[in-house]
Amino acid sequence: MSSSSPPQTLSALERRKLLVCPSADLKEHQHRIIPIRFKQAPQSAIVLRFGGQVYAYLNQCVHMVRRLDCMHDGIFDTDQDSLRCSMHGIVYDPTTGASKSVLCAGERLEALRTLEIDGQIYLTDKRVRHPT
Ligand code: FES
Question: Helix, strand, coil: what percent of the chain each, to 5?
């Protein structure tokens, strides 16, 4: 008779957790661009910290199919209180992804689920997979 414990099965959450970075590496107003597969297509995610909280969005502007960082690396506006698409300048509320611009008013970035636990930040969205 074996004394080893029964095999552990990973929960659905454990299986879909995608590590972004250690919590300490994402300070206020910092962001990471993470390659992902979203609904089976290659995409990227923006993961950011604002007001101490972690938020994540699909890196795709609501105006045109462009990454928010398509023209330069920054995603925050100069005041650091909004996200800003580098193509035509639509600004977004970092806590909701909602457009704050007249252009595309009422639209919002696609929010992605995150989890910050045990000093690590993960994407946990069911629609997101590892890029490879
Ligand atoms: S593509 Fe983002 S503002 Fe036009």
Answer: 5, 35, 60
